[in-house]
Task: structure prediction
Amino acid sequence: MKPGLKLTRKGKIGYASAAFGDAASYAFINTFLLFFLTTVAGIEPAAAGTITIVGAVWNTLINPIIGYMSDNAATKWGRRRPFLIVLCLPLAASTYLMFTAFDMLPMLKPLYYGAMMMIFWTAYTGFFVPYFALGAEYTTDYNERTELRSYASIFNMMGSLIGMVMPSIFADTLVQHGLSLAASWSITGAVVGVTSAISIGITAWAAKEKDLPCKQEGRRALPPLNLKVIFGEYWEVMKLKPVQYLLYCSLFALICNTMLSSDVMYYFTYNHGLSAVQISLMFLYKTVVCIILILIVKKISSVTDKRTTLMGVFIIGAVAMTAARFMGIDNIPKLMIFVIFVAIGTSIYWQLMPAIIYDVCEYDELETGKQRQGAIVSLQGLVEALAAGVGAQILGIILQIGGFDGDAAVQSAKALIYIENCVTILPAIFLVLAVLALKKYPITKERFEEIQAELAKRKGEE
Result:
């Protein structure tokens, strides 16, 4: 299956499978980890936020290394697939261990969960960057890249059912059958981890026709770990103007996403008094809304372009979340409407931004003559982890300032206001900042076609 040929539905589904594991593990961590640490593991909110920062800093260091290694790997299994095969297992194990509450001294808990966070992000980044880069090699067609990522986005939504919808109702069911709350969350972590690993393994198998064997005589399977070379490549990529604008946009959009994903558990539980079953149903409803939006946005972006569509989505989300704060949400129907706009402001990012980032690969090749898909997409992974850490840290600090008490069934009026602000006003501000950054991004559909034409001309002259 050559990059220039039309992708089959089977090929798109095979690539998209790993997006299930990506979303399941990422959504599970983003939505429930802070909640688990503060209400089950017994860690203070600010300390729990710091744990996520530890993971973000570690991810910042390993992202460029993974990107460089996946660009330069030469094995009989290809460049990208070995990373998926090897790292899906530690991803499953760390997901389980991060949601397991051990009886230990309070001072040791942050150290333990900080270490688990580092292992998780190593495994997650180790598979995600090569997987993400693999998509750029599936097709070079502007609209087909959006199509491919739309398939991946649907699998993302199905993964979210496991990582975001299932956990609270599953854990609650286990508690009702006599297990402790801590044991229930531990089992839930194992289920999310195992299903994530299986989906990643399916993509590793399905991509064998795209990620061809590249073992060369006398060449090592993995490149030497030269940090000067690795970070030099990374710095070159970061100096590209389109990359800089996308980094700012991604950072702001993902901080918004992290705050919404993490805070919505507090918002549903304490501001609206929803039960575990009701929360799971609300997440299920959000997932259905997201799938419908993905299909709509796929059509819209093919008529306009990806950048314009994403800017419009962010603006709608920011306006709606701001309006919700001042108009108030005091019943279930209003809450369901609010969830629609939360979905608009967050889920479409995962559909369009990866396809936008793929287009930078050709821009980089035109400007530098190099093919560095792994290095380019690893920047997305870096920003993703950094935003997750920053967003959770901001939320943890705000909750602590607001007087949130993890042991209390009912929170104070001040704490409820702070929780509400973190799911409305603050995320809306970050979405506006994302729009301002994306507005400066220069690669439209027309410009991308020009880049492709210039590359084809250059290759023809060679």
Observations:
- The chain has one domain: 14-210+236-461.
